Amino acid sequence: MVVERVKTGIPGMDEILNGGIPSRNVVLLSGGPGTGKSIFSYQYLWSGLRLGEPGVFVALEEHPVQVRINMSQFGWDVRPYERQGSFAIVDAFTSGIGEAAKRERYVVRDPEDVGLLVDVLREAIRDVGAKRVVIDSVSTLYLAKPVLARRTVMTLKRVLSGLGTTSILVSQVSVTERGFGGPGVEHAADGIIRLDLDEVDGELVRSLIVWKMRGTRHSMRRHPFEITDKGIRVYPDKVVRLGRSLRVEQA
């Protein structure tokens, strides 16, 4: 059986994933501060728009206006796609407070109410015919109640997969944390991509590893990546080896 895949459009990433993310998978994009999680998710949505695949971005930690500004810094202007109805931002940050927020079409009045968030998200997905969804960051929904982490991810997974989207849930972890952003979330997600920023001998090095991905073979190695003015570029032909001294080698 041929696996239907969604290409991330991030240079080098699809090679690591053996062609892309299996369709309808819900992927946890996990990492500490400054690792590039938001940029990765913006690029994933932008690549979809360029391929004619509508998308939805759920803003839980930044104002929708700031999200548009952040994306435009890489040359990714989503406003024309919003106007033509193929892209939407769900405002789960402002609760509708402020003049700019009043102009947003999709607003979650109580961001802590997962049921309300799901209702607004479902509406946005159906309106634009979304194929790709990003929630940034899902950790916000259960930060105060970590025991609800797995249940929250499972609720979102049922909705996102049921509506036919291939989705990324951004998950925050602390710099020293080895987990993925909440108890049990690794079992609820179909895939996990971990982004890391490690200091070795006074130098910061970015790397990523695909921890799991249902429905496909994938690289089991840690690969370096960089953030350029055009977005993220992954190097599938190189491997990062972490130890007392960091080494980047040919795969």
Q: Can you describe what's shown?
A:
This protein has seven helices and 14 strands. The strands form three sheets. The protein has a ten-stranded mixed β-sheet, sandwiched between helices. A two-stranded antiparallel ribbon has the order 1-2. The longest helix has 15 residues. It is globular and about 50 Å long. It starts with a strand and ends with a strand. The model has no long low-confidence stretch (mean pLDDT 91).
Could you list some keywords that capture this structure?
Rossmann fold; 26% helix; two-stranded antiparallel sheet; alpha/beta; 251 residues; single chain; globular
Reconstruct the topology from this structure.
Blueprint: E1 5-6, H1 13-16, E2 21-22, E3 26-31, H2 37-50, E4 55-59, H3 64-72, H4 79-83, E5 87-91, E6 106-107, H5 114-128, E7 132-136, H6 149-162, E8 166-172, H7 185-188, E9 191-200, E10 203-213, E11 223-228, E12 231-234, E13 238-241, E14 247-250
Parallel strand pairs: 3-8, 3-9, 4-5, 4-7, 5-6, 7-8
Antiparallel strand pairs: 1-2, 9-10, 10-11, 11-12, 13-14
Using only C-alpha atoms, the radius of gyration works out to 17 Å
Second rung of CATH, namely the architecture: 3-Layer(aba) Sandwich
> Outline, from the CA principal axes?
globular
Number of domains: 1
Provide the β-strand percentage band.
25-35%
Q: What is the succession of H and E elements?
A: EHEEHEHHEEHEHEHEEEEEE
CATH class: Alpha Beta
- Uncertain regions: pLDDT < 50 for 5+ in a row? none
Across the major sheet, the strand order is: 6-5-4-7-8-3-9-10-11-12
List the quaternary state of the chains.
single chain
Number of helices: 7
Distance between the termini: 29 Å
CATH topology: Rossmann fold
Number of strands: 14
The CATH superfamily name is P-loop containing nucleotide triphosphate hydrolases
Q: What is the average of the pLDDT values?
A: 91
The chain-level structural class is: alpha/beta
Helix fraction bin:
25-40%
Largest sheet: 10 strands, mixed
